[in-house]
Design a protein that fits this description.
about 240 residues; about 65% helix
């Protein structure tokens, strides 16, 4: 968020109030995925392949859940809330973002979210079909051709791995920049779920974060974990 965007947000919003923006399932997903991706990188670089596979299945379950939660989750966690067009991104970069675009994911933040989700989905998918011909073979290798296995293995061990590391590093650096240099509170809302937003009635719809939505999230994640477990059981 640029300084001019912050000024525009405050000028347009007037009084502010704490509003639930990030529901609990989204927050848990965020931190669990961060830990899992770090674990996946560390185990992959150190050749701890059994743990690499286990963490990879966990990442798969988390990604499946987030794809579903992007349609039925809290207001600001849904993909429709931050699927911005090029015009919105350009306006944000010029410091002319609409106030609503500064509540959940900003246009630039949304681009980062979609990029991370896409590369992780691709990395998990190729990992399921990869085979290093030594000790690690994905559970889906026997269902695809040798050519596909070779392509998946090459991507997973080379380009995909370094893109994941680059995106993870860029994300951490961006957060540090905004927290330490710009003095913006990015971490606290992803812990508490609340952000300071315009307080006018009806202007900002909070994310639903009640017991029913949390139970729904738990059921969805259990189903996603079940799918991940089933795919893992195909490994021979």
């Amino acid at each position: 968020m640029t300084d001019s965007s912050v000024a525009a947000f405050r000028a347009a919003s007037g009084p502010v109030a704490r509003t639930r923006v990030w529901d609990l399932p989204t927050r848990l997903f965020h931190w669990a995925l961060a830990v899992a991706v770090i674990g996946m990188i560390v185990t992959g670089l150190n050749g701890a392949m059994e743990w690499h596979f286990r963490i990879g299945y966990s990442v798969m379950a988390l990604l499946l859940f987030r794809l579903l939660w992007g349609f039925v989750g809290g207001r600001w966690s849904r993909f429709g809330a931050f699927a911005y067009g090029p015009g919105s991104l350009a306006a944000y970069l010029r410091g002319r973002a609409h106030p609503d675009h500064l509540i959940g994911h900003t246009p630039l933040g949304a681009l980062s979210v979609f990029a991370v989700l896409a590369i992780l989905v691709l990395q998990v998918a190729t990992g399921l079909m990869a085979d290093d011909e030594i000790s690690a073979s994905g559970p889906l290798t026997r269902f695809v051709s040798g050519e596909i296995v070779g392509m998946a293995t090459g991507w997973h061990k080379a380009q995909g791995k370094w893109i994941v590391i680059a995106l993870a590093s860029l994300h951490v650096l961006a957060v540090l920049f905004y927290v330490l240099i710009k003095r913006h509170r990015l971490v606290r809302p992803m812990v508490s779920g609340d952000k300071l937003v315009p307080s006018e009635s009806g202007q900002v719809a909070p994310s639903r974060d009640d017991a029913a939505s949390r139970w729904l999230a738990l059921v969805l994640f259990a189903l996603c974990a079940g799918v991940a477990w089933w795919i893992s059981s195909l490994r021979v």
